[in-house]
């Protein structure tokens, strides 16, 4: 089905009053939870997952689209007004946005972030609608061997290429792979890594792990180094951009969107790199008379560009998630597990077997995007008030909701022991600078990779060279090897020149 | 600019992390060894990947330990080096909150266990008004319970208070 016909069908389905209601509820809840300091989109979706228990699949995914975009938007509000970015993608927004807020320009910063998110969301969603079907056509030609190689590439890019250290990134991934192994092996029916605990036969729940990593770990880490004294929430001021603000924002919005989207689509995972690149680009391209605002009073270009790049990359991540079933960010991994809980496996077959669901989902991304820009600016006063919840009550509340969400999965104290235990591990991961996203990705992608490996070897009758003799698979593996070794070789060559 | 305090123990802490990862890998290898041999024939059996993951973890743990022996990586982390000293009071109260929840949830039910947890966590983060926290805690946990059990139809188990409502 071509994109235009698909979108027409999707909109016809998404524009029913009840589905619009789900989108609205999703946008509202996503922003309200996403705005809480320290809570990024992945945790927002994990915490709101129970909301979908009573909703049928289409409604649930419309809700998720709203939550996803809403959480992204809420995160930027927190970064600007409180200078506490909830995820790595909004660190750059906090850099300039918080400086603008300190100098009484919180209003323009919030507006440029909101409109920038809208522009980026539109570019990103258009990209999904028109690139998605092309990727699906390609993906249908891939066999298990190619899939396995693709997953290896994902593993390398999310853990070894990004972040501070390949060693620590890969260790996080290994921890995730180990967690993913727990439970009954699907092919042979053998219990694995359950250590004789019957509750572990079903495996470790991905949502539990995400909540442990992002909520419990974060709370513990904060308590570890807690110093009394509150944080100051900046006043919102007047929500208005001057003519000059608009002129200065339009370029960064478009450049940021165009920069961010491809980063999301390629399994180069994550929003850090495009937001940083956008920041440096805007710093270079800014008109000389405004250059002094960067790093001092806060430059609007430094909010508009990175915020657009962040949102466009986040939208781009949906392309490999929907078309290939490959999550390349923690947020996408949680969404994938939500799909799986409805018995739906994202991937090329989803587009051919359930076109109504897919296109309704894409259409509701457009709708959520429009709703957010209309809703959020008038409601910014409400979001700012949510930010004023004092730290003790906020973290006590987060812990209570983390607990009830986990306990609700299977009413077992074993799950709570796991939740708090993995939370303690996550606290040390924060302290020793181990990235947490590879844990979630490894956990959900690991079992899929194992299955692909087994299928590929069954087809090739046990011949391991199948991964190297099939040209597409071999090229993907070569790419993964370059991604793993390349940066280090590059560094080794560069060092003598620098010294 | 304040000079960051020099932490004598950082390479040793980093070494601890490396050794922990080695132990995690060994535990995985043991668990892989304990998987019963499948009577079904498979190209890649149930044990292969667990063995592989165990070997990878042991290897990474050794790598981290070697890196720690060469001075570690913590001294390069701005956030860890500039961090204030460990707040034992906060960690203790928060830990107590977690243990209370684990001990009481099956016995007294979610609402009571979570309310006590709420008060303890508030105290951990420096709240000095336990009675007010208790009141807010009851409202929050009861609200969460009702939302989950009535609105969403999620079973949160039975408890003392849950039985009354």
UniProtKB/TrEMBL annotation, chain A:
Every DUF112 domain range: 20-441
Keywords assigned: Membrane, Transmembrane, Transmembrane helix
Top-level taxon of origin: Bacteria
Pfam family, one: TctA
Transmembrane segments: 20-49, 61-82, 109-135, 147-167, 203-224, 312-336, 356-375, 395-420, 469-490
Keyword Transmembrane helix: yes
Keyword presence, Transmembrane: yes
Protein name: Tripartite tricarboxylate transporter permease
From TrEMBL, chain B:
Domain of life the protein comes from: Bacteria
Region forming the signal peptide: none
Residue ranges crossing the lipid bilayer per the database entry: 15-36, 48-68, 88-121, 133-152
Alphabetic keyword roster: Membrane, Transmembrane, Transmembrane helix
Domain DUF1468: 17-155
Entry annotated with the keyword Transmembrane helix: yes
Name of the protein in question: Tripartite tricarboxylate transporter TctB family protein
